[in-house]
Specification:
alpha+beta, 76 residues, 24% helix, two-stranded parallel sheet
């Protein structure tokens, strides 16, 4: 079992720290069909897509200023 303890300084992939944290924690449940719920700090469109490709259903509120959000939403 992995636990998120803070900033991961060894990450060298181009994804964000929150994306790496969630995918690392969810690695054990891929291809099982579990649901993953999260608060508005972690979600992003790229993360939701990545989890979806691994057959992990996810739910969470996305902040409107998150990178990758479509401009068509224009929520202010």
């Amino acid at each position: 079992m992995n636990m998120y303890l803070g900033k991961n300084r060894k990450r060298v992939t181009p994804i964000t720290a929150t994306h790496a944290t969630v995918t690392g924690l969810a690695a054990r449940i891929k291809q099982v069909g579990h649901k993953f719920y999260m608060d508005n700090f972690f979600p992003s469109p790229a993360l939701f897509y990545d989890l979806h490709t691994k057959s992990i259903n996810c739910c969470g509120n996305v902040r409107p200023n998150r990178t990758g959000m479509p401009e068509i939403l224009d929520i202010k």
